[in-house]
Amino acid sequence: MPKKSNTNKYLSIDPSGSGTTGCVFYDEKVYQFFNFTNKNWQEHFNFLSQLCQEKKINVLIYENTNFIYGRQFAGSVSLLKLIGGIECLKHVCSTVKQVDNILVKQVKDFYKKVVQGIFAFPGLERKIGRKGGWFFQGQKINVHELDALLGLNLYLSPPKEKKAKKITL
């Protein structure tokens, strides 16, 4: 009888209902990047469902936007439908035990800190110039895969909240 593994298998997702969805798989040893481009949110859902089954994902994390910033874009409704689908993956894929989300604002704020050098992210490098872009452990990654990686990092190592000072009157 094979040994049962206690290792978590994470899939962090930067979803798009009508563009490019970026993902990073992490099994506490290895990172593996995926992306999928299609105009149909249902195709994105099928891609994610298949990936969860193939990789036997048990923890899903996705970048969530619960507010469309004062402007509608063509993929707004499709994105929200895909987010609903992601939430339902625990009912579609038997290995998924937990689904969590990171707010898009948290990911964007974290991105700014990484770019400004305020936060050092081991293995992540930004190269400027013609052959530039983002690289993780020597592998070039796109901005969607980067957002998925940042979301995973925020999930696994959330920033410590500053304690509020007690004010006495």
Describe the model.
This protein has 169 residues and is an alpha/beta fold. The protein has a single domain (10-156), classed as Nucleotidyltransferase, domain 5 (2-Layer Sandwich). Helices cover 34% and strands 25% of the residues. The chain has 4 helices and 8 strands. The strands form 2 sheets. Strands 3-2-1-4-5 form a 5-stranded mixed β-sheet, with helices on both faces. It has a 3-stranded antiparallel β-sheet with strand order 6-7-8. A hairpin with a 5-residue loop joins strand 1 (10-14) and strand 2. Helix 1 (41-55) packs parallel to helix 2 (76-92) and helix 3 (104-115) crosses helix 4 (143-156). It is globular, with a radius of gyration of 17 Å. The termini are far apart.
Which terms would index this structure?
Nucleotidyltransferase, domain 5, 169 residues, 8 strands, alpha/beta, 25% strand, 4 helices, 34% helix, disordered C terminus
